[in-house]
Amino acid sequence: MSKQRKRNTDSGNVGSWLTTYGDLMTNLLCFFVLLFSMATVDTQKYEQLVRSLRASSIGGFSGSGSSYRNIVGKSILTVNFVNPDDTGEKRVDNKRYIEKTDEIIIDDREKIIMEKFQQAETQLRKEIEALNLTDVVEIVEENEFLLIRLSDEILFEPGSAEILESGKNILKTLGEPLVALDNEILVQGHTDTVPINTPLFPSNWELSTKRATNVVLFLIDSLKIEPSRLTATGNGEFKPIADNSTVEGRRRNRRIELTILKKN
User: Are 79 and 188 members of one domain?
Assistant: First the structure.
């Protein structure tokens, strides 16, 4: 009888030991599966994470632009743990991807600026069509700038630099989409080759320069555009876009041009 009890006791001890061992193996398996999942980088999810970081960073520095300069030199370091390559061999790459935070933020800031720029251009084209000004106002887009070309007949009387009331309304309507931008604006006055000689304007140099200056002053006073963004220049008759020997050519050459730089 005692031998039977001993065998029963030994059998119970063996069962308890196997249960504990099985639990240990299960826990170790879960642990290594977890390590493997942490070491394997999903490229799509990784890119989503980077984009999220960029979006949150630019959101925090969307003000004047001076704040983000305080973090220049700090880095975002992403570590790639032990990943198998195509041959099945394990390799360690502790600095797989490094980007400086200033580069990330500036890149996204430029994208936002370009989006605002495109929105302003779209609004400008709509306003020109709505005002039926397509014959006297032209938009020319280049890689580095956007050019708004206005015929002088909608802004000035012949030989005068005073802006007409109707011209002020046009400038205000076309200038409003530019208010939201931070881009520099170059305002240039141009004339034809017909000479002028008055007390106010001894030559076309003075006339073209005064016209450009008055447009700049109007944009500052009426639309509150920052003066540091604006520059006025006069070119006289020396930068024609058409033949001055024809009436139509001279009409086209008498103009005001607003050049909005895409990058400051």
Answer: no
